Design the sequence.
């Protein structure tokens, strides 16, 4: 089975991330992150992360967290793009607790990967509508940074 | 050759990255892939639902077999694909598949994805005619869910699959090579 090829789509930097602990629900330990803004930069697409994005995270209590995010992006040339992502963070429980508190955690200490889909009009960025992309992430002092790759 | 970033290869990668200037370290996050399984899908029957507000829908009752380095088995009856042909012509699978491993564990695999090509290629696939994988883009993103302790690791991973088409029982059906994202 030959590998999949990828190409960088964008480097996504999220800012003004506020965490709200909901507590234990029938789905698990729920934590909502609201995302106030940010930037995305890539070879073919650049712009701003609009306020109002969120990531509804679910902790499974075994060191793994499911990510489920929605963002609206606006390109520098004025197009609006919806981005949905779903993924997994996995590491030792203590590592994710430090991560959740916003303390520095080296990216080698955990696995943070997601798949993402985009939705936009059929104009300039219509190609995003039929693209599957994967992301890899780390947390920096100002917020998460995700590198998103096209799956070729 | 750059080592693959993964849970095992990551330390080696970090050693190399550690020697790079800070500006390049920023681009250090890469993804790698490890083969997880190959699954061949067959169609038992199709219910054509037709045009809905979201696009054109049909439901394929599917069967199949899967094989990989760490798990193998078959697709159980009741598995299906609520396939949506969007208004831009792109196919979106919406599959719910129940896998039974050869050691009798149950694993749910759900996936959506994208099958995109020129209308001519999609029409040929719909007519059951052969098409080559260079003629279309078919990628899926399976999620796994299981209560099995042995396969609990599947609950924790992110995966991507690449679809090819083969002819089976007069249908043009997919074979997916599914990879764990490292």
Sequence:
């Amino acid at each position: 089975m030959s590998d999949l090829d990828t190409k960088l789509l964008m480097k996504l930097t999220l800012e003004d991330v506020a965490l709200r602990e909901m507590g234990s629900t029938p789905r698990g330990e729920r934590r909502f992150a609201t995302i106030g803004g940010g930037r995305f930069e890539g070879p073919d697409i650049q712009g701003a992360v609009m306020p109002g994005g969120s990531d509804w995270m679910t902790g499974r209590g075994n060191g793994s967290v499911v990510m489920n995010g929605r963002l609206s992006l606006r390109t520098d040339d004025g197009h609006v793009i919806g981005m949905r992502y779903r993924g997994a963070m996995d590491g030792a429980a203590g590592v994710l607790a430090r991560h959740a508190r916003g303390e520095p955690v080296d990216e080698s200490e955990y696995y943070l990967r997601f798949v993402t889909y985009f939705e936009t009009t059929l104009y300039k960025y219509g190609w995003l509508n039929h693209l599957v992309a994967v992301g890899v992430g780390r947390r920096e002092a100002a917020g998460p940074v995700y590198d998103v790759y096209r799956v070729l | 050759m750059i080592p693959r970033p993964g849970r095992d290869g990551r330390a080696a990668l970090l050693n190399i990255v550690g020697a790079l200037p800070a500006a390049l370290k920023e681009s250090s996050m890469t993804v790698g892939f490890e083969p997880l399984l190959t699954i061949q899908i067959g169609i038992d029957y199709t219910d054509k639902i037709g045009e809905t507000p979201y696009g054109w829908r049909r439901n394929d009752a599917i069967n199949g077999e899967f094989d990989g380095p760490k798990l193998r088995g078959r697709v159980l009856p009741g598995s299906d694909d609520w396939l949506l042909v969007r208004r831009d012509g792109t196919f979106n699978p919406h599959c719910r598949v129940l896998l039974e491993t050869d050691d009798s564990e149950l694993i749910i695999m759900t996936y959506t994805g994208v099958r995109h090509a020129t209308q001519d290629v999609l029409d040929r696939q719909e007519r059951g005619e052969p098409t080559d994988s260079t003629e279309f883009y078919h990628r899926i993103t399976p999620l796994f869910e299981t209560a099995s302790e042995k396969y609990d690791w599947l609950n924790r991973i992110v995966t991507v699959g690449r679809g090819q088409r083969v002819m089976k029982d007069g249908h043009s059906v997919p074979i997916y090579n599914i990879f764990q994202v490292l």
